[in-house]
Amino acid sequence: MTAHEGGPVEATREIIAQSRRIIVKIGSSSLAGADGRLSEQSVTRLADVLAGVRAAGRQVILVTSGAIAAGVGPMGLPARPRDLATAQATASVGQGALVAAYSAAFARHGLTVGQVLLTADDMMRRSHYGNAQRAFNRLLDLGVLPIVNENDAVATDEIRFGDNDRLAALVATVAHADALVLLTDVDGLYTAAPGTPGSERIDEVHGPEDLAGIDVSRRGSALGTGGMITKLEAASIATTSGIAVVLASAADAASAVAGDAVGTLFHPTGKRDTTRLQWLAHAARTRGAIMVDDGAVRALQGRRASLLAAGVTEIRGSFEAGEPVDLIGPDGAIVARGFAGFSAAEAEQMRGLSTDALGETLGEGYARELIHIDDLVVM
Ligand SMILES: Nc1ncnc2c1ncn2[C@@H]1O[C@H](COP(=O)(O)OP(=O)(O)O)[C@@H](O)[C@H]1O
Ligand SMILES: N[C@@H](CCC(=O)OP(=O)(O)O)C(=O)O
Fold it and tell me: Is 150 a pocket residue for ligand 2 (Cβ < 6 Å)?
């Protein structure tokens, strides 16, 4: 059976095989040798695979870890540092070496690379998010292969990704990629950490229901940071944004990007929202919360309606009109996110009132929804 004739697995593999714009993320565990230092051979091997993807006319963005690993040798350190300040310094030294290694490896294929260092803030602020999007589009239009890492030298403990899995998923949504390939040191997702008796590899994941009972609690490898937890978070961000994901071993990189049956395949579950709503759902740091009653929860989830002041029970935090807020139901769960139509102070005056009452007591300018349906994403 060819991929074209097959069922859903083949269809999603085909999306990956045919993807015009693909994000490939490789983790520290696949780039560092047993001594914790960067393996030039791993860099060269990946560059060879990605050059093949480019030669097929497809666009590639590489999200690569390894800055800290690449800094260990030049810094004369015995192993990967764990404290933030030394890790920052080591990443600062290593990032240059890492990109130099990739530049040389891709140059052998006549390809030019461009370094893009991002912070969590760049993904959370809308203006920065737009800047990143423009940068990727221009680099790709010019035939450059962007190489992305977190800007470790300036990332602080409070606000940083730490791992590159979620960063890669956000890059995939920002760049409107069709597929995300997460390369690591295991050949897929297992029901429990590989090596655990009875643990089995999972071929495909259709949605959160397929992940029930899966144990991802074991920390990642000694060299990696997030383990499987952040990879599942990344897969969720991407698939709910309509992007197919493959989690595979770095050794299987060529098969993974070709859509062959390796690793664990995560089927897209959501639709491709506008950039603005993708940012709202996955990246935005909210400025406050609007507590809503059961009726409002049902309206938001069922009818996908606008949020009316009548269903609002409490306003938390301080936000201006247009800023992102969480909408929280009576059980404390986040139901949706939205761009507030009014400031927190105005919303406080409006809460609980019907649209008619809003017009009568506060004036005609207030006789409308608190958050318009076009400014909402249900979570
Ligand atoms: N259920 C699971 N299935 C697969 N791997 C798991 C699971 N639970 C924990 N892991 C661990 O996650 C590790 C990969 O994560 P990590 O070390 O952060 O890699 P990377 O550097 O590629 O991001 C694997 O080496 C494995 O030990
Ligand atoms: N930004 C860091 C990567 C941190 C890290 O190890 O991430 P990961 O390999 O995704 O677990 C670096 O370049 O060293």
Answer: yes
